[in-house]
Amino acid sequence: MKKLVIFGFEPFGGESINPSLEVALRLPEVIGEYKIISHRLPVVFGEAADMAMDIAEREDADALICLGQAGGREQITPELVAINLRNADIPDNKGNHPKDEPVVNGGREAYFSSLPVRKMAEAMAERGIPARLSYSAGAYVCNDLYYSLLHRFFGTKRRVCFIHVPYCTDQGRMPSMELDRIVEGIRAAIEAI
Fold this sequence. Notes:
With 193 residues, the chain is an alpha/beta fold. It is built from five helices and ten strands; from the N terminus they run E-H-E-E-H-E-E-E-E-H-H-E-E-E-H. The chain has helices spanning 19-26, 47-59, 117-126, 141-153, 179-191, and strands at 2-9, 30-31, 34-41, 63-69, 77-79, 81-83, 110-112, 159-165, 167-168, 176-177. A six-stranded mixed β-sheet has the order 2-3-1-4-8-5, with helices on both faces. Strands 6-7 form a two-stranded antiparallel ribbon. A hairpin with a 2-residue loop joins strand 2 and strand 3 (34-41). The longest helix has 13 residues, at 47-59. The chain is globular. The relative contact order is 0.24.
């Protein structure tokens, strides 16, 4: 059976929960041909990526899906592109506040997802889950993780994507989505790989 490692982030920005982590922890142990292995990551530039790369190697993962919270979005949004840029509007959970720094010195300007993110977005939408393809993972820790993984595993068997999820209704913010519905969407996305 193939292994899919799914990462969710700890809470940040004053929130008490992060729906990305809640979703990662609620997925079933097996989806399609993949054994699902969930891990929590810190919202810290560089640290999250280093931890994820170590886990991917240790688990001998075939695929990596990173989930992150995108407050203000109404849909689940698989990300097509990661850019070589760190730029934080708010500090990360260790107080880092980079401005216009590269993720990897001398690295490519951008990488495209190595998983079929358009197909994943379409699979969610076909099930009635609000979803659309996104062309910007931003420049915060989410993009830092995404770019780092794509850079590290470029040309290897490991395929990588990043999916942003909206606030969950438990956070009391708008727009939001029920946690079970987000889980259903991510499951559909994985089945579409």
